[in-house]
Amino acid sequence: MIVITGAAGFIGSVVAGELNNRGRNDLVLVDDFSKKQKERNYIDLRYNVLINRNDFFDWFEENHYYVDFVVHLGARTDTTEFDWNVFQKLNVDYTETMFSLCAEYQIPLVYASSAATYGNGELGYDDSHEVVERLQPLNPYGRSKNEVDKWILKQEKQPPFWAGLKFFNVYGPNEYHKGRMASVIFHSFNQINATGKVKLFRSHRPDFEDGQQLRDFIYVKDIANVICFMMEGQQTKVNGQQTSSTENFNSQLSTSNLKSGIYNLGTGKARSFYDLAAATFKAMGKDVNIEFIDIPEDIRDKYQYFTEANMTKLRDAGYDKEFTSLEDGVEDYVKNYLRDFIEVP
């Protein structure tokens, strides 16, 4: 079985769907399933069992022999939340417990880190382990992810394979429930549909023009492909016996160079918010109409003007699939998902 935490959420549900597509239906979905707005993300998935996140560790203690792999994506991801106790419980303590149990039971683990750990980028965006201790995240969310990365790198007892994935700006289907924290594409679609225009943040720095703030935008389907890649070729434990999960995926990708560690997960190519908005207008068949507004004061001093993942480590590990371009990802998202979510006139 494959455990996926955060399975009712954005990335977790897409990963579960991709595993279904690849023939894996023996999934253990973990989340807070009391939130009805997330139900559409998992109602059509094929799985073995749903487990509340608060009950999972008890279940894991009793059933770990049947678990092939753990994909830990559950977390509090709100970058505007400033109560550290929330992040300590849901992000730090939960992930460290998960890592410790996977090490004890020798089960491979992939967990979600974040590009928010890089702060304002003064140390660059290189996923080298040597830089982790010196990173200065701009908000408690980023700090919580970096605290986990630092702790894991110090652990002597480890799972047979582990990877912390530093997600950059992820967009795509199943983020409908995220409210303010949904991608700019999601909000742009809704704004265009309602008003015919998009509001983007103006620049508060002289070295960036309005709308030319840059991000490494990655389509959520690419995230799912990378996680599946990391499962391939790993020696996993099924009913106490060692077996290779490769036969479950039928991939031609080589994982011979894949080692445990922290990996960036972006496209390696930064694009502007203007480009993103323009791609959304094009996918909707409308002319570009953009209005610039001030960045809210509560996040202005924590706002990143540039992010771009150094993807050398993942490429060197054998991942050779092309990442979805911004234009292609936006077109697929708008035409195949958002148009069904909200009817466009």
List the topology elements.
Layout: E1 2-5, H1 10-21, E2 27-31, H2 39-42, E3 49-52, H3 56-63, E4 69-72, H4 84-105, E5 109-114, H5 140-153, E6 162-167, E7 169-171, H6 184-195, E8 198-201, E9 214-215, E10 217-219, H7 220-231, E11 235-238, E12 241-244, E13 261-265, E14 271-272, H8 273-283, E15 290-293, H9 297-300, H10 312-316, H11 326-341
Parallel strand pairs: 1-2, 1-4, 2-3, 4-5, 5-6, 6-13, 7-10, 8-15
Antiparallel strand pairs: 9-14, 11-12
Helix pairs in contact: 1-7, 4-5, 6-8, 8-11
Q: Care to describe what's here?
A:
The protein is an alpha/beta fold. Helix content is 35%, strand content 17%. The protein is built from 11 helices and 15 strands. The chain has helices at residues 10-21, 39-42, 56-63, 84-105, 140-153, 184-195, 220-231, 273-283, 297-300, 312-316, 326-341, and strands at 2-5, 27-31, 49-52, 69-72, 109-114, 162-167, 169-171, 198-201, 214-215, 217-219, 235-238, 241-244, 261-265, 271-272, 290-293. The strands form 5 sheets. The protein has a 7-stranded parallel β-sheet, sandwiched between helices. Strands 7-10 form a two-stranded parallel ribbon. Strand 11 (235-238) and strand 12 (241-244) form a beta hairpin. Helix 4 (84-105) packs parallel to helix 5 (140-153). The protein is globular, with a radius of gyration of 20 Å. The termini are far apart. Residues 235-255 have low confidence and may be disordered.
